[in-house]
Design brief:
Elements: E1 3-7, E2 10-13, E3 18-25, E4 32-39, E5 46-51, E6 58-60, E7 68-72, E8 78-83, E9 92-100, E10 113-114, E11 118-123
Parallel strand pairs: 2-11
Antiparallel strand pairs: 1-3, 3-8, 4-5, 4-9, 5-6, 7-8, 9-10, 9-11
């Protein structure tokens, strides 16, 4: 049974930083492509960032490019999202996702496993 465990959310002032973490538990011997999505109240879930299994390839949505950085641990299936220069519009519940795949995945339907989400609130 694969589970994703997220941590690192919280309340931060605009301009501040947060670092989210997501660890895959269960079938950790498989390589997983991983990504971050977010969902604000009253809005659909949207793509934020993704990384392939080696960490060499990343992809970001335009609104976070240059402010957020996705990375992964050298060993195992743990992924991080470093969020800098946070804005009020970044406020959302952030979800980690994983799929046994060698490529970068950016669409919700492409992922097999999801975390429970961690809340990020940016105060202006």
């Amino acid at each position: 049974q694969v589970q994703l465990v997220e941590s690192g959310g919280g309340l931060v002032q605009a301009g501040g930083s947060l670092r989210l973490s997501c660890a895959v538990t269960g079938r950790t011997f498989k390589p997983y492509a991983m990504g971050w999505f977010r969902q604000a109240p009253g809005k659909e879930r949207e793509f934020v960032a993704a990384i392939n299994i080696s960490g060499a390839r990343t992809y970001y949505t335009d609104s976070v490019e240059g402010r957020f950085t996705i990375s992964r641990a050298n060993v195992g299936n743990t992924v991080y999202l470093q969020m800098n220069s946070l804005r009020s519009e970044d406020t959302a519940n952030y979800y980690c996702a994983a799929k046994y795949s060698t490529v970068v995945l950016t669409r919700i339907a492409e992922y097999d496993y999801w975390g429970q989400g961690t809340q990020v609130t940016v105060s202006s």
